């Protein structure tokens, strides 16, 4: 796949959302074609932030823009995003090819162009020869490759990864990060990635967004924020304060 999808800017303005007592307030902007890693303690609001962008949750107030589109009240399927979760991305009764093709046509009514896009995505994520396998015959890493291929054929400018590689071992996680890096270089999509590994942001040369208690406590380049001069709150999270 060599077509440049081209990313879109993701901007949340004064977005407020709460689950009971847990009040969250997001004001942030990720430029088009940037990779941003979202880190922070458990319960700080990382998944909620992605769910608001994807449309699985709706803000109580504030606005969300993706590119020039105000998507604050837009249903998830109509937003220009794809999302990959930690698990359960695939339908167990469908083979690799069909699981990916769902990204083009939810009823699997495929045109020749759709089939070509699916074939190309399968090759791009390194699954050629495994098209007819069902998810149960795939490793954890292969399953996530299928989910990424589905996102690729959707051709959306924003990719959301919610701890997508958390259940993989370290070497496989790095392989998947390298795949994202290569796909990003080809498509220039905007990537927002929730991770419990701040070093992932360094590996991807990404921006870092650090959440604490439902707000952005720090943001900037990963190498700056993770250096000695980074904010105290981040050092506490990293366990690097004296
Ligand atoms: N569906 C829900 N109903 C009620 N409260 C929720 C729901 N989902 C999340 N919460 C609460 O909202 C807060 C933020 O949750 P969220 O899942 O966004 O955090 P997170 O940073 O992704 O955490 P983790 O790293 O553990 O996945 C937490 O206090 C959580 O308990």
Topology readout:
Blueprint: E1 10-19, E2 22-30, E3 35-39, H1 46-54, E4 61-66, E5 69-70, E6 81-84, H2 96-101, H3 112-124, H4 140-154, E7 158-162, H5 170-187, E8 190-194, H6 199-203, E9 207-212, E10 215-221, H7 222-225, H8 232-238
Parallel strand pairs: 3-8, 3-9, 6-7, 7-8
Antiparallel strand pairs: 1-2, 1-4, 4-5, 9-10
The structure holds adenosine-5'-triphosphate (ATP).
Adenosine-5'-triphosphate (ATP) binds at residues 19, 22, 40, 42-48.
Rounded average pLDDT: 94
Radius of gyration: 18 Å
Strand content: 15-25%
* CATH superfamily descriptor of the largest domain: P-loop containing nucleotide triphosphate hydrolases
By CATH reckoning, the class of the largest domain would read: Alpha Beta
How would a crystallographer describe the biggest sheet? 6 strands, mixed
Provide the succession of SSEs.
EEEHEEEHHHEHEHEEHH
What structural category characterises the helix and strand content?
A: alpha/beta
Sum up the overall morphology in one term: globular
Distance separating the two termini:
48 Å
Number of domains: 2
Quaternary organization: single chain
Domain ABC transporter: 10-238
GO molecular function, one term: ATPase-coupled transmembrane transporter activity
Family: Belongs to the ABC transporter superfamily.
Keywords: ATP-binding, Cell inner membrane, Cell membrane, Membrane, Nucleotide-binding, Translocase, Transport
